[in-house]
């Protein structure tokens, strides 16, 4: 019985790739050094998986920024606006083109926007959205996949397994940039290039090739199902001497089961962590000689595998198919998992014994195979760890459970039109009021302050004095450029989730539990191990201090319960909605404390609410109902004059707009600049009643937009929504940006708002 892995974290154990990429972008290292760092990470990853006894080890799962963008470059899917960049860089410097597509390009007299970025299915990982035209052509544009396989084969031999985004999912992950065609129709042009790629890999010696087709776990139209059938029939008829494995994950195949098992492939991977119930139907329909890869080790969480549960699934598959037609695997790529638990020396030993990171998950895959072969010692040790967690008093707190059980639906006292008038009279803001999403650049000096505090080189008083001065400086600068609703900058916060988790019971934190969010952006999610409660105020001290420094409105900044849940590693021993309600009650208490402290505008970010949306439409209403209820719990009980904001980023809203409206936030801010306000169509079609701040400034790129560009975006927004309900703000928080670009961009943004007040009728006076 073979073992395999679908993908491995590529940032390096000490985030070496992040540091090297940012140094390359800053011109501090050259391409040779960047490639050296990347090669070292790849070889370490391969050696780790080889040492763990994995039979099929992925290659081409490494990426400098994003694997979907890698696929676009491989296939020559380069938007026309980047042709000037392509002519500016030498062929061996095509990585500069690659980074321009991801981050935008603003030099050499060129000013080119970045490609759109959005969430990878229901994860917090972001991918670069392919752009397609009706006359789209495909070709092998670069050689990366072939050189990487050659390098991997030298170390791994036949264990090296190239990984590609499958052709159908690649098209479905993209967007049409012209009207009048369906991108899935490009499958006829795309398949021959995949055939060429696969055959070349086969000629280089590849025995297995993994094609990721996550869309097989989503709702598919008749045309999309036909595209799968066509693509794989064509590939199978033109490819020889290569074993193809199609990998699905994040949900069950359901009505796509018959389609998936009938594809002319050697093996099919299914996610039995997210959807163990699908195994019976998959086994009933699996034809001979199709091999089944069982995704039974959770690739998206940090908890130790329950071997007894996994063995029941393995035994069922082996009984039906035999050992030679079963592969043991993680549920998905381990990209979404921290790298190595061994380095977490400060964790509570009892809780650490319940956990597993990417390296340990490889061992779990191997050990499950060994248990099948008769090693009962491994099984008994696992049982003890699982039982310890179930019985631990550190996990279960009865008062928290009782408070959640007593929850009823929550709502504001008055309807939005009543609140809107009261709030306008209280704050007296101009038309197109300006604000930011919350954070300002976290400079090296700010990070060093935090590090020095942790090392004991600063007292708490010295640290807080420095943070206070940074806050005052940020307030004075905002006042100087004319921002209407200020933020304190969040200089005291390490991360928008970690900061809160550190002050809530039921959370723990790792030292090096980093995962990639996008590009060089890495996050270190908290771990929710037990019942959640709020013992003390979390943000009141800094919000009060900031508000006392200015006569302008100052926003209190909180992270919402669904986002805290989504951006944490969550308990898997109770329903997610129960954990969310525990967090919601804690945030509710903080909202009440901020209001009592005189903070009149409170932002409760729910950046990840769409991220938690089930992939299957039939499952969505249940999730959306409890997610919306959790937000309403946080804002319930505040006065009508208190203005509640929320923020959502990088999401499509068309299919959830009704539920966004049901959240009943007074103001919502969203990402819209990369899509050129395209995402606002959902709000316009729905006739969204509350106020909205469509982002006019893409903070995920160092590019500085001009005043004219932002004014044009505001004009587009005013064509879609009532101008008197529009705010002006960036797409997201500015924590990851540098101060020079931030100052220039926000100055331009304020100027754009002033122009909009002159040029665009707001119909009513604020």
From TrEMBL:
Question: From which domain of life does this come?
Answer: Bacteria
**So where's the catalytic machinery, residue-wise?**
700 (proton donor)
* Positions annotated to bind L-methionine: 437-439, 490, 605
Q: In which pathway does it act?
A: Amino-acid biosynthesis; L-methionine biosynthesis via de novo pathway; L-methionine from L-homocysteine (MetE route): step 1/1
- Coiled-coil residues are 446-480
* Known catalytic reactions: 5-methyltetrahydropteroyltri-L-glutamate + L-homocysteine = tetrahydropteroyltri-L-glutamate + L-methionine
Q: Binding positions for L-homocysteine?
A: 437-439, 490, 605
Q: Which residues bind Zn(2+)?
A: 647, 649, 671, 732
Q: Name one Pfam family in it.
A: Meth_synt_1
**GO MF:** 5-methyltetrahydropteroyltriglutamate-homocysteine S-methyltransferase activity
E.C. designation(s): 2.1.1.14
Q: Where does 5-methyltetrahydropteroyltri-L-glutamate bind?
A: 119, 521-522, 567, 611
Q: Which cofactor does it need?
A: Zn(2+)
Q: Has keyword Oxidoreductase?
A: no
Which residues does the UniProt record annotate as the domain Cobalamin-independent methionine synthase MetE N-terminal? 3-320
Q: Does Disulfide bond count among this protein's keywords?
A: no
Q: Which InterPro entries match?
A: Cbl-indep_Met_Synth_N (IPR013215), Cobalamin-indep_Met_synthase (IPR006276), Met_Synth_C/arc (IPR002629), UROD/MetE-like_sf (IPR038071)
Question: Could you give a single Gene Ontology term from the biological process aspect?
Answer: methylation
Cobalamin-independent methionine synthase MetE C-terminal/archaeal domain residues are 432-754
Q: How is the cofactor bound?
A: Binds 1 zinc ion per subunit.
The UniProt keywords, alphabetically, are: Amino-acid biosynthesis, Coiled coil, Metal-binding, Methionine biosynthesis, Methyltransferase, Repeat, Transferase, Zinc
Q: Which PANTHER family match?
A: 5-METHYLTETRAHYDROPTEROYLTRIGLUTAMATE--HOMOCYSTEINE METHYLTRANSFERASE
Function, as annotated, reads: Catalyzes the transfer of a methyl group from 5-methyltetrahydrofolate to homocysteine resulting in methionine formation.
Its family remark reads:
Belongs to the vitamin-B12 independent methionine synthase family.
Q: What is this protein called?
A: 5-methyltetrahydropteroyltriglutamate--homocysteine methyltransferase
| Gene that encodes it | metE
């Amino acid at each position: 019985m073979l073992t395999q892995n679908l993908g491995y974290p590529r940032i390096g154990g000490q985030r070496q790739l992040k540091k090297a990429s940012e140094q390359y972008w800053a011109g501090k290292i050259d391409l040779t050094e960047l490639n050296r760092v990347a090669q070292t990470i790849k070889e370490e990853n391969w050696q780790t998986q080889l040492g763990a006894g994995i039979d099929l080890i992925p290659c081409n799962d490494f990426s400098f920024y994003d694997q979907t963008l890698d696929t676009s470059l491989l296939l020559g899917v380069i938007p026309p606006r980047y042709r000037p960049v392509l002519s500016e860089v030498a062929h061996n410097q095509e990585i500069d083109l690659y980074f321009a597509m991801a981050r935008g390009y603003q030099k050499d007299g060129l000013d080119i926007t970045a490609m759109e970025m959005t969430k990878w299915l229901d994860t917090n990982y972001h991918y670069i959205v392919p752009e397609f035209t009706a006359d789209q052509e495909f070709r092998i544009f670069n050689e990366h996949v072939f050189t990487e396989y050659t390098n991997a084969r030298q170390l791994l031999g036949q264990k090296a397994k190239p990984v590609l985004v499958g052709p159908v999912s690649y098209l479905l992950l993209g967007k049409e940039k012209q009207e009048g065609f369906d991108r899935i129709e490009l499958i006829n042009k795309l398949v021959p290039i995949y055939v060429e790629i696969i055959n070349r890999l086969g000629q280089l010696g590849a025995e297995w090739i993994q094609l990721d087709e996550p869309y097989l776990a989503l709702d598919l139209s008749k045309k999309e199902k036909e595209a799968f059938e066509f693509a794989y029939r064509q590939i199978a008829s033109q490819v020889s001497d290569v074993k193809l494995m199609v990998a699905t994950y994040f949900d069950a195949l359901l009505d796509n089961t018959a389609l998936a098992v009938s594809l002319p492939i050697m093996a099919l991977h299914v996610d039995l962590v997210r959807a163990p119930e699908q195994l019976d139907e998959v086994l009933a329909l699996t034809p001979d000689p199709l091999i089944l890869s069982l995704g039974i080790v959770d690739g998206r969480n940090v908890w130790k595998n329950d071997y007894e549960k996994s063995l029941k699934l393995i035994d069922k598959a082996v009984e039906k198919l035999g050992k030679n037609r079963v592969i043991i695997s993680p549920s998905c790529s381990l990209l979404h998992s921290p790298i190595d638990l061994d380095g977490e020396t400060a964790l509570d030993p009892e809780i650490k014994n319940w956990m597993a990171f990417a390296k340990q998950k490889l061992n779990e895959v191997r050990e499950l195979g060994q248990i099948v072969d008769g090693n009962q010692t491994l099984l008994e040790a696992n049982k003890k760890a699982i039982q310890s967690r179930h019985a631990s008093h550190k996990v279960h707190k009865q008062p928290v459970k009782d408070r959640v059980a007593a929850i009823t639906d929550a709502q504001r006292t008055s309807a939005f039109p009543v609140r809107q008038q009261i709030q306008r009279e209280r704050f007296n803001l101009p038309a197109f009021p300006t604000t930011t999403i919350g954070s300002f650049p976290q400079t090296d000096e700010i990070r060093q302050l935090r590090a020095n505090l942790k090392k004991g080189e600063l007292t708490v008083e010295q640290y807080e004095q420095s943070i206070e001065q940074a806050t005052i400086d940020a307030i004075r600068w905002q006042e100087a450029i004319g921002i209407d609703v200020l933020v304190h900058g969040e200089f005291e916060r390490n991360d928008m989730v970690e900061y809160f988790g550190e002050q809530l019971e039921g959370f723990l934190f790792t030292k090096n539990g980093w995962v990639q969010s996008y590009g060089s952006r890495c996050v270190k999610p908290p771990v929710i191990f037990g019942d959640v409660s709020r013992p003390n105020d979390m943000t009141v001290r800094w919000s009060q201090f900031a508000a006392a420094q200015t006569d302008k409105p100052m926003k209190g900044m909180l992270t919402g319960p669904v986002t805290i849940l989504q951006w944490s590693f969550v308990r898997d021993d109770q329903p997610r909605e129960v954990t969310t309600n525990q967090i919601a009650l804690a945030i509710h208490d903080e909202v009440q404390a901020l209001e009592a402290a005189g903070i009149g505008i409170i932002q409760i970010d729910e950046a990840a609410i769409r991220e938690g949306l089930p992939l299957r439409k039939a499952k969505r209403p249940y999730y959306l109902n409890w997610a919306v209820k959790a937000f309403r719990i946080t804002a319930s009980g505040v006065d009508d004059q208190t203005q509640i904001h929320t923020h959502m980023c990088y999401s499509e809203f068309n299919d959830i707009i009704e539920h966004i409206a049901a959240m009943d936030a007074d103001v919502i801010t969203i990402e819209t600049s990369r899509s050129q306000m395209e995402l606002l169509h959902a709000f316009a079609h729905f006739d969204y009643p509350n106020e909205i701040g469509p982002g006019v400034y893409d903070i995920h790129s160092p590019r500085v937009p001009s005043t004219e560009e932002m004014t044009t975006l505001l004009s587009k927004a005013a064509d879609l929504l009532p101008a008197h309900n529009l705010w002006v703000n960036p797409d997201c928080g500015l924590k990851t940006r540098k101060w020079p670009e931030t100052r220039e961009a926000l100055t331009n943004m304020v100027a754009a708002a002033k122009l909009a007040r002159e040029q665009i009728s707001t119909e009513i006076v604020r």
